[in-house]
Amino acid sequence: MRIALKVAYDGTKFFGFQRQKSVKTVEGELIRALQKLDIIKGPRENNFKGASRTDRGVSAFGNVVSFDTENLKLVQPRILNHHLKDIWVLGIAGVGEDFHPRYSAEGKIYRYYMVDEGFDLNAMKRCSKLFIGTHNFSNFARLEQFKNPVRTLDDIKISKKGKLVVLEFSGESFLWEMIRRIVTALKMCGLSCLSEGEVEDMLNLKVDRKLPPAPAENLVLWEIKYPSLRFEIDESSVEKAKREFFERFSRAFLRAALFEEWFNAL
C-alpha cells in the first residue's frame, strides 16, 4: 500500500531536506526512522519520494512524503514521532499507487516572516503585483542547468501581525532561491530603496548583479495542495507537537523580550 505523510520540521536543525552523506537532513532522518521500524527496506525499494527539497535552514509546516509499505501496523504518527527529533508527523493518508508528492500536487504555499522595520506596506503590495502571473524569473533565482526559468506566481499576500510582516506566496512551483530573492526586492521597495520601475526592469531585462536571497531561516513551506487528498490527523501527535512548539516559542519569546528591553533602554 502507498502511504503519504504530512510532516513539519525545524529547518534550522538540518542541512536541508534532501539526504546527503555524513550530515543530518530531514529526508535522511525520516528514512532512518522508517527503516528502524521495518516499515521500509530502503528509499529505492519502497519508492520513497518527497514533495519539496527545501534548502538548508528552511522549515516546513506541511511538506509531504510518500512510500510503499506492507507494515501498516507501525505506520502511525505517534509511533513515528517517538523516533524523530525536530520533525513532526502531523497527518497520514492512503494514496494511489501512482501518487507522487511532487508531481501530484496542484500548488504550494510558502510564508516568509520579517520584523517590521517601518516598511511602507502599500509600496510592498504595489511591487508584489509585478511578480504575479507568468514571468521569466532568471533574475530572481539561482538557476540550475536545464531548468526552465519561467514560472507562474498565483498570488502574493502581505499582512502585518503585531511586529511582524508576513509574506505569503502561492504558485505551482518555484525556482531555487526564487522566493527569498523576491522577498529582498519587496523589502527594498518597502524601505524606498527600490522603485516599481526598477523591479519591473529586473523582471524584463538582463542584469549584471542579482539581488541576494533573504535569510533561509525565516521561510516556511506552509502547505502543499492536492486534489481530493485529506490527511487523517492523529490527535495525540498534534497535542505532543503543540507542547513542543510552545516550549520552543516560550524560549524564543523570552529571549526576544530580553533584547527588546535592552534595545529600548539605550
Shape: globular
Overall pLDDT? 95
Give the total of beta strands. Answer: 10
The portion of residues assigned to helices is 25-40%
For the sheet with most strands, the description reads: 10 strands, mixed
Tell me the count of domains: 2
CATH first level of the largest domain: Alpha Beta
Strand content: 25-35%
Q: Which structural class do the helices and strands define? A: alpha+beta
How many H/I helical runs? Answer: 6
Roughly how many Å is the radius of gyration?
Answer: 20 Å
Would you identify the regions where 5 or more consecutive residues have pLDDT less than 50? none
Proper CATH architecture of the largest domain: 2-Layer Sandwich
Per CATH, the superfamily of the largest domain is Pseudouridine synthase I, catalytic domain, C-terminal subdomain
Please, could you describe this protein's structure?
Strands 1, 2, 3, 4, 5, 6, 7, 8, 9 and 10 form a 10-stranded mixed sheet that branches. The protein contains 6 helices and 10 strands. 30% of the residues lie in helices and 27% in strands. α3 (121-131) packs antiparallel against α4 (178-190). With 266 residues, the chain is α+β, with helices and mostly antiparallel strands. The model has no long low-confidence stretch (mean pLDDT 95). A hairpin with a 2-residue loop joins β7 (150-161) and β8.
Draw up the topology in text.
Blueprint: E1 2-9, H1 26-36, E2 49-50, E3 59-68, H2 77-82, E4 87-95, E5 107-115, H3 121-131, E6 133-136, E7 150-161, E8 164-171, H4 178-190, H5 196-204, E9 219-225, E10 232-233, H6 235-265
Parallel strand pairs: 3-9
Antiparallel strand pairs: 1-3, 1-4, 2-3, 4-10, 5-8, 5-9, 6-7, 7-8
Helix pairs in contact: 3-4, 3-5
